[in-house]
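FAQ: What does a ligand-bound record look like?

Like this one, built around 4AD:
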Amino acid sequence: MRIKEILQSSAAIGKNVETKGWVRTKRGNKNIVFVSLNDGSTINNIQVVIDASRFPEEMIKQITTGACISVKGNLVQSPGKEQSIEMQAEDVIVYGSANPETYPLQKKGHSLEFLREIAHLRPRTNTFGAILRIRHALSFAIHKYFNDKGFYYLHTPIITGSDCEGAGEMFRVTTLSATDPPLLNDGTVNFSEDFFGKETKLTVSGQLEGELGALALSRIYTFGPTFRAENSNTPRHLAEFWMIEPEMAFFDINNNMDLAEDFLKYLIRYALDNCREDLEFLRKMYDEELLMRLAFIMENNFARITYTQAIDVLQHSGEKFEFPVEWGVDLQTEHERYLVEKHYKKPVIVTDYPKTIKAFYMKQNDDNKTVRAMDVLFPKIGEIIGGSQREEDYKKLKKRILELELPEKDLWWYLETRLFGSAPHSGFGLGFERLVLFVTGMSNIRDVIPFPRSPKNAEF
Ligand code: 4AD
Ligand code: MG
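The answer part, i.e. the structure of the complex:
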């Protein structure tokens, strides 16, 4: 039986069961030993009571923090205050011992920085168990939300020849020799000899292919890994992160904002309903305001303002920002957090950004200066979603691609959808780790993904 099952059912009392897991702590004396056992199914441990006289001393010695054991025994009402059920061991097998001299996860609390260095073992801590279970629950909820709404999950490619965001922050994928690649006459690498016969990269976003799906199935979403070679060593950026990108035909930017708000509220509600114990643990250990912050999302209608209004608010705030504010600059996290936490005191959606700071595919407004972009801003995090209505007009889109000197030859298929049955459509991208960061109340994005990838770090 998994430990979660045992602890949940009072009917289990009196039963003889077998359970397996990793030892969290061991205490007692030479006659009686108490072991707290955890198998990751829940944050709670089961207490195993071992009558030492019934087992070889050598074996009892091997049961130390970190060891993996299997126990068979009777479930009884516990006389202790800490737990209601405990197990009286009849059979014990030690699968794997863990030398107390070298096992790094001893009972004392460890810093999150230290745990990052032992990412192969940190899933065995209470903190990472809770985070990983919440991460799972949120992934499941994302699929459930879209499935219930009639969206189709579209698998977009990981390897691509096009740069969706046009920011040039992509990792190259190649089988050419690093030391002696084939060259063209001008000395540049001859990618026609590469595996795909052209230069290819890891995708920064599934959106462009997502649009192709939406212009056939009407409503799709992607949920996959994305990669950015931006050298941002911040607590909110990863080089490899997961993104959810819904794309909807016949949605304008208002429909898009409605969906984003409903979606985020649904996910937070789902976590509150399904991950109570883990959230409660994280609140207690890391962030007293966690549940309040989650309620803040549930209870407020998101403010909806234009970029121009946002700049106006920031300029009149009397606040001294590290990055000065004027019309045309991109909003920094400090600006985003000011809008949400100090000014509006609600989640905020900012729309209609200057076209110069947004990607080529966004629908151009008539003012010729702004595009129909929308960023959703959350407390503590800043931007959690970025999206837009898309430019569906062939001529305008092509003009923008040329203006930005993007390689038109790599985007011919994208442009062609605007020639054949083009339609108004919109979509957005939710950074999955930003969501998990928000829901768990952690402060560093490297602590909400099992094996983080960031500049100078690809261990594990
Ligand atoms: O704003 P971004 O760059 O938008 C896109 O990629 C669009 N193609 C999305 C769309 O319209 N379909 O990224 C979307 C979200 C951000 O709001 C942020 O939450 C997250 O992805 N994100 C990152 N998360 C972790 N590490 C990074 N380096 C991230 N860059 C973006
Ligand atoms: Mg963005």
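Follow-up question: can I read anything off the structure? Yes, for example: The mean pLDDT is 96.
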